[in-house]
Design goal:
mainly alpha, 3 helices, about 85% helix, about 0% strand
Length: about 90
């Protein structure tokens, strides 16, 4: 099995990784919607009151901050892996 990893198409591997990250991100968005809905929505009605609206805004902003942090962390991890792989190939 180890020999198979070396012959795999790098573009295909990258595509699969990107698609996998997109799927994880979509799961996070759904999770955020559930969490913010449960946290902020006391009583559904035809309009949002200002308190509920602010709760949603704050909840989504914290989610975006967290997501951005995670994405930056993933990028750093991939860069360090990439440079490690490049030195292995030299």
């Amino acid at each position: 099995m180890d020999g198979q990893g070396a012959t795999a198409d790098p573009q295909l591997q990258q595509f699969i990784e990107i698609e996998s990250q997109k799927q994880r991100f979509q799961q996070l968005v759904h999770q955020m919607a559930d969490v913010c809905w449960e946290k902020c929505m006391d009583k559904p009605g035809p309009k949002l009151d200002s308190r509920t609206e602010m709760c949603f805004v704050n909840c989504v902003e914290r989610f975006i901050d967290t997501s951005q942090f995670i994405l930056n962390r993933l990028e750093q991890t991939q860069k360090s892996r990439g440079s490690f792989s490049e030195t292995m190939l030299d």
